[in-house]
TrEMBL record:
SUPFAM superfamilies xrefs: UDP-Glycosyltransferase/glycogen phosphorylase
Alphabetic keyword roster: Glycosyltransferase, Transferase
InterPro entries: Glyco_trans_4-like_N, Glycosyltransferase_grp1
Pfam family, any one: Glyco_trans_1_4
Residue span, Glycosyltransferase subfamily 4-like N-terminal domain: 29-139
Group of enzyme by EC: transferase
Entry GO MF terms: glycosyltransferase activity
Enzyme Commission designation: 2.4.-.-
Lineage, top ranks: Bacteria, Bacillati, Bacillota, Clostridia, Eubacteriales
Organism: Candidatus Gemmiger avistercoris
UniProt protein name: Glycosyltransferase
Length: 387
């Protein structure tokens, strides 16, 4: 097949860019010809052209024209869209549909129903926009704390909802939790065909080495991710303070706005490692009894738990959204109430008396997130759209 991938990069690199790049490589390795149409919000905002960015975020006529021309001139067989905000706009979806080719879009977040994309406001889960309408986002300035920028995003999605832009498009959610939420919201405000919403997990780095047995693991727990409020770092450090000197060693890997606070409040059983190379982080996770995932929001895809499970490492997960849904208590980890340091401390104590089948945890994760399964899921999506 000849496949066109469409993606708008945010100003700062993120997980969506990594998925876009990984799936491009995967398709090429399976013999497909891959074309790309890419734009960057950083570049689009510079110079005089930046004045037009708000208008183009709603309706980018030039991008639509260029996408349609590329599809026709190159004889594209299928189009796979990742992000369209802000520099592309959903008009590229309409342009691809107008060419009569199968169109697939990965929903990396909840942007169809929530302008900030993550169903979060003031540090807590918020579902006002799906339930009551996009005007809720305007009232709270949910996109970057700006009324003007929130208005642009809300206008773009309000217009394309009315136009039925996502009708006839196969949509991919990264998890079953996301799919269930999207279907719930779509029943309230229909904007896509529910039978066209499928699940395809994001690519996950899979290790080559065998999982270390439970008995051979160190008495330590890893917290990995951006050091910020939403990842639950405060909850984790407070839990270790409650555990006292008998706590397993806690390794904190990452950087972010709470790094200085973490270094100041780290107890004697806590080591702040900073940002680690992926290989070094994987080694620590593979040697540990557990990985702590204490997120306070739904998360778009629980990547750290997925990588931990691929190493055979159980996860101590906040019972919320994709993080909580990624864990089967007693099988590949334990859950605790989000934001509850005492509950996390209790889970750590419970963990000390348990045994896990690390090889089985790794085998299941590696099957679920294998490149071949990822590729088959893409092919099923393209075939679904052709049907």
């Amino acid at each position: 097949m000849k496949i066109l991938l469409i993606h708008c990069h945010y100003r700062l690199p993120g997980g969506e860019d990594a998925v876009f790049a990984a799936e491009r490589t995967l398709l090429e390795e399976h013999g497909h010809t891959v074309l790309t149409y890419e734009r960057s919000n950083g570049e689009a905002a510079r110079g005089p052209a930046g004045l037009l960015l708000p208008l183009r975020a709603v309706w980018n006529r030039r991008a639509a024209r260029e996408v349609a021309a590329l599809i026709r001139q190159e004889g594209v067989d299928a189009v796979h869209i990742h992000n369209t905000l802000l520099a592309l706009s959903p008009t590229v979806v309409r342009a691809a549909k107008g060419c009569g080719v199968p169109v697939v879009q990965t929903l990396h977040n909840f942007r169809l129903f929530c302008p900030n994309g993550v169903l979060l406001r003031d540090g807590a889960v918020c579902e006002d926009c799906p339930a009551r309408g996009l005007q809720c986002a305007l009232r709270h300035r949910c996109y970057r704390g700006s009324l003007a920028q929130t208005a642009v995003v809300a206008a773009a999605y309000a217009l394309h909802r009315r136009l039925g832009t996502w009708r006839g498009v196969t949509l991919l959610a990264p998890t079953e939790f996301d799919r269930a939420k999207l279907l719930e919201f779509n029943r309230l405000r229909p904007l896509f065909d529910p039978e066209r919403l499928a699940v395809k997990p994001n690519p996950v780095r899979l290790p080559r080495q065998a999982a270390l047995p439970w008995a051979a693991r160190r008495d330590q727990v890893v917290f990995a991710g951006r050091l910020e409020e939403l990842k639950g770092l405060r909850t984790v450090l407070e839990a270790w303070a409650l555990l006292g000197p008998d706590a397993p060693e806690l390794l904190v890997a990452g950087t972010g706005p709470l790094e200085a606070w973490a270094r100041q409040h780290a107890g004697p059983r806590v080591r702040i490692l900073g940002q680690l190379p992926p290989e070094e982080l994987a080694r620590h996770m593979a040697e540990s009894r557990a990985v702590a995932a204490a997120s306070l929001c739904y998360e778009s895809f629980a990547l750290v738990p997925a990588e931990a499970h691929a190493l055979g490492t159980p996860v101590l997960a906040s019972d919320l959204g994709n993080v909580g849904a990624s864990v089967r208590p007693g099988v590949d980890g334990l859950r605790f109430a989000p934001g509850d340091a005492a509950a996390l401390a209790a889970a750590v104590r419970q963990l000390a008396g348990m045994t896990f089948d690390c090889a089985a945890i790794a085998a299941e994760a590696r099957r679920r997130y294998s490149e071949e399964e990822n590729y088959r899921a893409l092919m099923r999506a393209y075939a679904k759209d052709q049907a």
